[in-house]
Amino acid sequence: MADSLPAEVDVVVLGTGLQEAIVAAACSRISKRVLHVDRNNYYGGNWASFSFSGLLSWIEEYRGQKSNNAEVNWNDKILEGEDAIELDQIDKSVKNVEVFCFASRVAEDDVVEEGALVNKQSNVNSSSTVEDGAVNNEDEKNQMSECTNSSEENPENIKVKDTLHSTKEASAEVIQPEDKPSCADVPSSTTSGTSLAKELIANDVASVEIEADSVEHTTDVPAQEDKNQTKKLTYSQIIKNGRKFNIDLTSKFLYSRGSLVDLLIKSNVSRYAEFKNINRILAFQGEKVEQVPCSRADVFASKRLTMIEKRMLMKFLTFCLEYEQHPDEYLDFKDSTFSSYLKTPMLTASLQHFVLHSIAMVSESASTTEGLKATQHFLRCLGRYGNTPFLFPLYGVGEIPQCFCRMSAVFGGTYCLRHSVQCLVVDRETGRCKAVVDSNGYRIDCEHFIVNDGYLPEKSTKNVHYGYISRAVLITDSSILKADSEQISILNVPAVGDCQPSVRIIELCPSSMTCPQGTYLVHLTCPSNGTAKEDLEPVISKLFTQYSGNEENDDGEKPKVLWALYFTVRDSSAVDRSSYEGLPSNVYVCSGPSATLGFEQSVEQAKAIFHQLCPGEEFCPAAPNPEDIVYDSDGAKPENGGFGSPSESSDTVDVKKDVDADTAENSDDKMEEASEILTANEVGKESEKSKSDPQTLENDINETVELKDAE
Description:
By secondary structure, the chain is α+β, with helices and mostly antiparallel strands. The chain is built from 18 helices and 29 strands.
């Protein structure tokens, strides 16, 4: 329970974003006592991933701008010689939230998500949307605020079940906080996403029917579905299939040789997730979307390029791989833009466009050195895990923070959602934070405090100038470039004029486990110049169409938008720590997601904070292998050697996606599902021979990618 939190810890972490999760895992790994709390009832903050009705509830929360925690009187916790810094309890990092529905407005009774659990003893509105595992009596709701302290569990008995994806099951055994709508201080109709769903169904005048496969998605399938096995899908049916959506607030890819992949391998956190190759990079040129050849195989297999263009492109890409060794070829253009330099190697206009926007992925104003470095990084990432430079985590980017939260919990971290810190207690003599007071008025002593910048008070951020990111999430009925099989795609649309920013588009297919069959999930991101709708609608109108209700007027070449969400999110990645005023020296600030495609900035920030906390300590060392675990003095080794497959014991502890450790019996159904995924024993396990081979850890993620490709 939340009232049993420890009275003293080494590190208090507020917020469960990526940087906070990495720092918490790194500190727990070296035996620091970590208390990790979040005012939300889901993990990830602005890195979170939601089911459809969970996203509707998130939208309602930001429309209402209500605090998740009741105010408490903490003045009596401040002793003589101490001051208090009150923290903000309302998240102001998201604004300009707009929702549009173009799907059929035909309402249906008893609209409930598939697999939803309804308490028969409670009065439930027949048209409300209920999450899987959602409950309606107050006793079970209160369980959501309970904390998990995995230091009380024996690590030998911990097994990884369903590689962080067990929460997707329709099961009532575990409450899934990250998938449930936020409910503190919000009316019950709001918490289930009902009011917004009713509003969209009732007020929208457009209608559209799309073909959608009703079966569960598991592997890549042909894009052309058998019409005999499809059914018509309305907005109400989108709600019913809501748990098949995993909609990210932040849309990014992992560079295969990026800092996050290296960290996942080094720390053995890669065992907690599965990844999929991004095998299609697109370009938008001449009002047309086309695939870009990037690797040697793609270049020579391309029918789009002439033989002369293929030789030009291969010669240029070969130079970029080792451009530092040929300074004479680019130093004269060091002070000019990369786009200007691309005209000199005699690349055609099409090749210049491909390199600038789809390979280097830099702006028109980027310098020559920046462009060459970006192109080199892209090329070096090719081939590590297949013919692609990128990886995508199955079930969404929101999985990554939870992977590190799990690692922290395994090594003793205490987790508590729907819980926050009201104020910091500062010693006047030293000027350092010595304790915090939580949302229950409970004082907790600590040596270090890590906080997401969304919790900082206004007086500390009055001189800080934030950037903003415009985001859009679309649910469409088809891909922007149709293919014979499902593809995860990335497309950069160049800026048009000074007012229109360049837009990055990530399209996710059903095999990414983020949307049901018959639909695609499209994420659009760009630096903000105005509202998200103003920034992104011009690009959306070029590539997509909203159904008008008249089939004769529809453009069959363009995907139809069924539902759209626009919002603007704050970008604090460029803010220096010294810009925040009045913060003690042992208070460390984590920024939110940046506008860049990769995770490099987040990993570097987390690493820098850790080294300030723990100078001289190793950052996220690898978790021990089962054979390295020291057992009790009697020398008895348990049947299940730690991180391996479940034994026949009924007391095996599963570390769930939300990092809550719950004891459950191994049923036949669970064992059958466990056989279809990689367990921790299968991912990252080293034999005596392979311990000395550094390549073994590098193969961890590769194994998961190969597994999905084989499927």
